[in-house]
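Morning run. Coffee first, then this:
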Amino acid sequence: MNPSELALWRRQRRRDLLAVREATDPAARAAWGRLISRALLEGFPLFEAAKVAIYWPIRGEFDPRFVARTLRGRGATVGLPVVTGKTLPLVFREWYPGMELQEGGMGIPYPGFSTEIVPDACLIPPVGFDALGFRLGYGAGFFDRTLAALSPRPLAIGTAFECARIDTIFPQPHDIALDFIVTERGIHVARAAGLERIEAAEATRIAGELVSSRQRAHAAAGMPADARFSSPVCYARDAAPGYFGEEDGED
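And here it is:
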């Protein structure tokens, strides 16, 4: 596909996947969410001494706030993403239940004045995910841009329902594969040959190795945390027409 055809394909696929998710029985989504929460807590105990970025759930997404509450009780610091500009990486500010939040784009709350954190791991909500672990998001490119900017790169863990699984998103150079995807069917690691379902103990081992290898690479490079940036094409209007106060249309 050429860029225009790909943008159109992703826009339609995004709409279809969102329609399926939002039409799913809330009780079923809640049951799937409990399975995902259990898998996260069992498979990634390193979260308990880490800075973990979550997201505020919208449009039928898995709700990570219950996991966040448990992690905070075990010593973790939890943050929410904050948009500071349409071509800039996200920043993350500490969040805890009950704190005052401001309303951002798409009506998503965010902490306005709490301490900024650099996450060790990010829980990321795919609209869709493919056989190689690439994520179809809402179209603005924020998470890809953010993962490219952070060094050492945090663990990227997609949390999604199986109804979001597709064959391919036709990944482009700016797309970054997730490290793991956790669904109601369990934990999946993204390998070169494709997603592979693994047990919690194996997820713990692989996550620890990824963190250690990225920390070593970061130390060897001697590069500041903001040394790498990526600016993928922004299709934010697909998700929220008029979000940036501009007239709708193509970039």
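The helical segments are 3-23, 26-43, 65-73, 142-149, 200-221, 236-239. Good start to the day.
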